[in-house]
Design brief:
Layout lengths: L2 E7 L16 E2 L2 E2 H10 L6 E6 L4 H7 L12 E2 L4 H12 L6 E6 L7 H10 L5 E7 L4 E5 L2 E6 L5 E3 L3 E4 H10 L7 H7 L4 E5 L10 H11 L4 E15 L2 E4 L2 E4 L2 E3 L7 H14 L4 H4 L13 H13 L3 E10 L9 H12 L6 E6 L5 H4 L3 E12 L1
Parallel strand pairs: 1-4, 1-6, 4-5, 7-12, 17-18
Antiparallel strand pairs: 2-3, 6-11, 7-10, 7-11, 8-9, 13-16, 13-19, 14-15, 17-19
Bound molecules: magnesium ion.
């Protein structure tokens, strides 16, 4: 069984209100048309794909389907004045290939599920024609001059989708003898007297008609929001001195902190938390202690770098939380200044920054007053 797909892309799509016809509008990394073509090329039953285009759209077509060549994709043919004329032009172009079955599809339905194609093809084993449909969910009303006149019973009514599938010789003969335009190819088949079977369609297969439909289709391809959490941990030992620098604030103390830079243990933990969320290593990789440039450096540089990396990756840092662990100095009185200092370095609202402190109940190296430890958590969001 040779199966051909015939994609009708000759329309002007005026309802979209754009200069470029809707089938050539960008969608994800390609176009609406390219998505429709891909749906068929990705289906194992497809042997041939014929596209019917408007004669003025050759450049748009070439730009739209610029991917690697696929031998199943035939050169496009020019359509006619009406949709029916365009379909006939496509069928005539396919005739020398003598396919057994043809699936006629609207280019403006980019998200055609494989199951719908399979259902139409399966039905063609039983009937000369088949098409996907959806039930009518809303009440239907007839109206005149903006006023409702009478309800229309929904019983037996269906919303038609494409691809509409046919045994090829039958639909070619039907189109050749059909005069004038038709709503779709099922109408042509019915006029020729064929039995046409209904199969389940899919909401995803809805047609792009206006700008809102196109915007919805684009949104459906956007990656989901990326929310990440990173943690950081750092320790610095006390050494002789008269103050320690914590979260960018100089706190008077009877000792200093030992380190290559200014030994700001809080900022180091926060910097590592951001790098952790980004999966970009740690502070030592970006600022090696072996590099003399960072001797005595203000750690604000490190935190600024991590913030910049987050920005470059498209992330907003939405929250920073730092816990300092020491017996002395007392952190509480300095915590507001530390938040303000971190807010200045990161350009974040102070509401999004937390600085807390705890002792370790005189246990371990912090409890013995040998140094200060810091833990940090960073939350990053890419919309
Ligand atoms: Mg450190």
């Amino acid at each position: 069984m040779r199966t051909a797909a015939l994609i009708v892309a000759a329309g002007r799509g005026r309802r979209l209100g754009a200069e470029t016809p809707k089938q050539y509008q960008p969608l994800g990394r390609s176009t609406v048309l390219a998505h429709a073509v891909r749906a068929f090329l990705d289906h194992r039953a497809t042997d041939l794909v014929q596209i019917v285009i408007h004669p003025q759209d050759r450049d748009l077509y070439a730009a739209s389907l610029s991917g690697p060549p696929d031998l199943r994709l035939l050169p496009p043919v020019a359509g006619g004045v009406t949709r029916s004329a365009s379909v006939l032009a496509g069928l005539e172009a396919l005739a020398p290939q003598a396919p057994d079955r043809v699936l006629i599809h609207d280019a403006a339905r980019p998200f055609l599920p494989a199951e719908v194609v399979s259902a139409v093809l399966a039905a063609l084993d039983e009937a000369p024609a088949a098409f996907p449909v959806l039930p009518v969910a809303d009440a239907l009303w007839r109206a005149q001059d903006g006023l409702a006149t009478e309800p229309v019973p929904r019983d037996g009514l269906w919303r038609a989708q494409t691809p509409q599938g046919f045994r090829f010789p039958e639909i070619l003969a039907a189109h050749r003898s059909h005069a004038g335009d038709a709503a779709d190819d099922v109408a042509v088949a019915r006029a020729a007297g064929f039995a046409v079977r209904l199969v389940p369609g899919a909401e995803a297969n809805d047609k792009i008609t206006d700008a809102a439909d196109l915007a919805r289709a684009r949104r459906s391809l956007e990656p989901p929001m990326d929310i990440r959490t990173g943690n950081g941990f750092d320790v610095h030992a006390f050494c002789p001195g008269a103050s320690v620098t914590l979260c960018g604030v100089e706190v008077p103390h009877d000792r200093g902190l030992l380190g290559h830079s200014d030994a700001d243990v809080g900022i180091h933990a926060l910097t590592d938390a951001i790098f952790g969320a980004l999966g970009e290593g740690d502070i030592g990789r970006w600022f090696p202690p072996s590099d003399p440039r960072w001797k005595g450096a203000a750690s604000a540089i490190f935190l600024g770098k991590a913030m910049e990396r987050a920005r470059l990756a498209g992330f907003a840092v939405t929250h920073l939380d730092c816990t300092l662990v020491c017996e002395t100095p007392k952190i509480g009185p300095h915590a507001p200044a530390m938040r303000a200092s971190l807010a200045a370095i990161t350009a974040l609202d102070p509401e999004r920054i937390s600085v807390k402190a705890t002792t370790s109940e005189r246990l371990g190296f912090t409890g013995r007053g040998e140094g200060i430890a810091a833990l940090a958590t960073a939350t990053l969001v890419r919309p």
